[in-house]
Amino acid sequence: MGSAxxxxxxxxxxxxxxxxxxxxxVLNRDYPRDFTPDAAYRASMPDLQNGPASLIRGARRKLxxxxxxxxxxxxxxxxxxxxxxxxxxxxxxTVGLDAGKKxxxxxxxxxxxxRHAESxxxxxxxSAVLDDYLGDLESDDARLQLRFSYPLTVPSLRSGLKGYQYxxxxxxLSEVNDLRQRFVHLDYAYSSTCPCSLELSEHxxxxxGQLATPHxxxxxxxxxxxxxxxxxxxxxxxxxxARAAVPTETQVMVKxxxxxxxxxxxxxxxxxxxxxxxxxxxxxxxxxRVGDFRIIASHQESLHSHDAVSVxxxxxxxxxxxxxxxxxxxxxxxx
Length: 335
Fold this sequence. Notes:
By secondary structure, this protein is an alpha+beta fold. It contains 8 helices and 9 strands. It has helices at residues 4-14, 39-44, 107-114, 123-136, 195-208, 235-245, 256-268, 273-286, and strands at 63-78, 84-97, 120-121, 142-155, 162-176, 179-193, 216-227, 290-299, 308-314.
């Protein structure tokens, strides 16, 4: 940046109209509301990101991801029942950058996306956006992720009340080495009662007549699946699979009879974190719409000051020799 200032001062001095004794041009300090750049003016503007390779700083290596994260806008989605819902969505879009290219124009990612912003979003719409990324940014690889909270009405266990449960969901589409893959990620919150603590509590009651309660805690599973084939995998389908595998989902509307029912449901389904990953796995491996998948279960212990975690993967998409240090910490459900 330091080398740019002498050029600026020199060009200003050549233009005349200098301040007395200063040697540089007097600049207008008022915002020019009526100024409209024409094509010639825009063509004259510097564009460092599309400059020559000589401008590259650091190692000339390919970047796997370059783009923007967490730009927000409302998008429409189709529900399993045929209706539509509009949700606030956080969008991240990136492309690969070849070793000999300086950079990309980040705004093109948003402009490409906004061309489709009025469409109903599904993987076909995302595929059209990805095609635009590849063309507009002259890249061979591209990735797009949509993150949002998906509300569904769920009934209470016994009272007949209903309330909205919000599910953390993400849709992801990537193209790397000419392979295009579709993924859905779900965060499912449930209660986990420790089987060991349940047995110890019963032992205290039976042997010593001592009242004791087993420890249980809010737990979260992040279920990530590759969507394959032509048949639709609805968000509701994935949620139903999770609930069928581990039925102790956290509750929304609760009266006394519901709280008692939840205690009974937990006692009927005690679960270690190892059990959780394997139970969530069962319906996924049977569903023809699911290819590779990964399950991360986190039991955020009430007994311990730490969490109990387990990870189960199937297929090559989620296999990694290294784990993001923040991955497990990110699997939490706020109240």
